[in-house]
Amino acid sequence: xxxxxxxxxxxxxxxxxxxxxxxxxxxxxxxxxxMLELLLDGFDGEDQATILEQLFxxxxxxxxxxxxxxxxxxxCTLLPQIEYKNNAWKQVLTSPQTKANVFMAKFINxxxxxxxxxxxxxxxxxxxxxxxxxxxxxxxxLNQPIDGKRVFAILVNNYAALLAICCIQFWLGIRFRxxxxxxxxxxxxxxxxxxxxxxxxxxxxxxYPYAFHMYPNFSQYKAVVPAIAWTSLGYSVLFxxxxxxxxxxxxxxx
Amino acid sequence: MNNTPIxxxxxxxxxxxxxxxxxxxxxxxxxRGSIYGFLGPNGSGKTTTLSLLLGxxxxxxxxxxxxxxxxxxxxxxxxxxxxxxxxxxxxxxxLTAKENLEVYRAVYGASKERIAEVxxxxxxxxxxxxxxxxxxxxxxxxLSIALALLPNPELLVLxxxxxxxxxxxxxxxxxxxxxxxxxxxxxxxxxxxxLSEVEKMVTHLGIIYKGKMLFQGSLPELHLFQRxxxxxxxxxxxxxxxxxxxxxxxxxxxxxxxxxxxxxxKQTASINRLLVQNQLDVHLLQPKENDLEQxxxxxxxxxx
Lengths: 254, 304
Fold this sequence. Notes:
Number of helices of chain B: 11
Mean pLDDT of chain A: 91
Order of helices and strands of chain B: EEEEHEEHEHHHEHEHEEHEHEEHEH
Structural class of chain A: mainly alpha
Number of helices of chain A: 9
Oligomer: heterodimer
Order of helices and strands of chain A: HHHHHHHHH
Largest sheet of chain B: 6 strands, mixed
Number of strands of chain A: 0
Radius of gyration of chain B: 24 Å
Radius of gyration of chain A: 20 Å
Strand content of chain B: 25-35%
C-alpha cells in the first residue's frame, strides 16, 4: 500500500517530462523506419505473403538491437534526473516514505515506461500495417496470418534480456547527478557488448549483460535465449540490491 | 498538557570528513508550542543540525528524540507529523503549484481539500496552470512553505525561509509563522543567520557557532544574558586612581576609558558618588547596553 502511494507520487512527477515524449518518440522510431523502408524500397516477391508477421518479428530486430537498449539507458537516466534537476531529493527523503519504497517506486516507474514503450511500439507497427493495407490493398496485409505467441515471445525475451542493463543503468542514473556519466558508461558498454556478441557469441558474451540484446534478435541463438534470460534475471536481482544498498547509504541531498 | 520537549538532542556531534568536525555535542531542546529561532552565521552548523533532525543525514554520535521518540526508531511515523523546508525550494519546475502538492498529498495522508487550504494560506491559490519554473523566487519559497504545511504538521522546520523574499514577503512570512503558532498550535523551528529577522517572532532562541551551542533559552533569558554583557564606561580626571577605587567591580582599561560590568542604575549612582567623594572629576559615566544584534555578534566573535 505504501509502495503504491510512493508510486503514485512518482507517476505524477513524470507528467509533462521529457521521459514521456522520449518513450513515444523511441517507440515510433522502429515502425517509422520500417514503413519508410517498405514504402520506398518495395517488397520482395516471396515475402509479400508474410508481411504482417515480419513487421512484428524480423522488423523488430532494429528496435531490439539498438532502440530498445538506448531507450532503457536514457529512461533510467532521465527519471532520477527529475530529483537532481529540481533539487528535490531532500524533500523526497524528508517525506514519510521509506528509502526502500522511494527506490522501488522509481524502479517500477521505469518498468511501466518500458511497458508503454513496448505497447506503443506494437501499436504503431499495427498502424503501419493498416497504412500498408490501405496503400497496397492487393497485398491484403491485415488478412495475413500472424503467430501471436511468437510475437509475444520476442517481446518477452527482449525485455528479459535487457532487464540486467536496466538495473545497472537505473543504479547509475540514481547515483550520478551528472547525467552524462551513466549515458557514456551505458553507450560504451553497449558498443563493447555488441562487438563481443558478434565475434564471440557463445563465449564470454553470454555472461556480459551489455551483449544480451544480441540473443533474442538472431534466430541462430534461439537455443541460448532461455539461459540468457535467466542470467539477465540473476544480474537484475544482484544490481537492484546493490543499487538499493548504495542508495540507502549515500547522501542524496547534495 | 504534555511537557515533553518536542525536540531533544543530546550530545549531537557530526563530521562530514575525518578530522573536520561540524557539530560538537549539541544539546537542543525545543518546547511544545514555542517558536524556536535557531541562529548562527553561515556555516555554523544550522543546516547540518536540521538535516540530522529530519533524518537527511545519518546520526553519528548523540541521540535525537522527536515527539518523545527516538528518530530512527520510528522515522516515517515522526516525519508524518513534520513539515519542513530545508534551504532552497525543492519543487518540480515542470508541474503547477497544485500538482507539486498533489505529488506529496497521499504520502502525507492529506485530503484534497487541504491542497486548496494551504495554497490559500500562502496566497498562491490563483496561480492556475502556471508551472513552477515560471514562478518568482518568493512564490517558490511560499509554495515550499505550503508543501511544509500540507500534513498540518505538529512541528514545522524552516531553514532560512526568508531567503529570496523581499521585505514585504519577510513581514508576511513573520505574520504567517505567528498565525501558525498561535491559531494552529504548531511548534516552529526557524533557522536564520540574522537575529533581527527572527527576534520579533521567536519565543526561544538557540545560538550556534562553529558547531557549538553558545546560548539556548527563552527570550527573557537572552535579555538577562544580554544585560550581563552590558558595560559601564567611565572616564575621570585621574583614571589610575579610579581603577584602584573601583577594584571590587573588576574594571578593565579599554584605552580611553574604564569599562566594568554594568548591573543597574543604582550601581551607576554609587560609583559616581565614590568617584566624586574622592575628588575625581567624572567626565564620562555611560552604561553601554548590548542590543541583541550586538550580543549575537559578540557571542559569535568571542568564540572565533
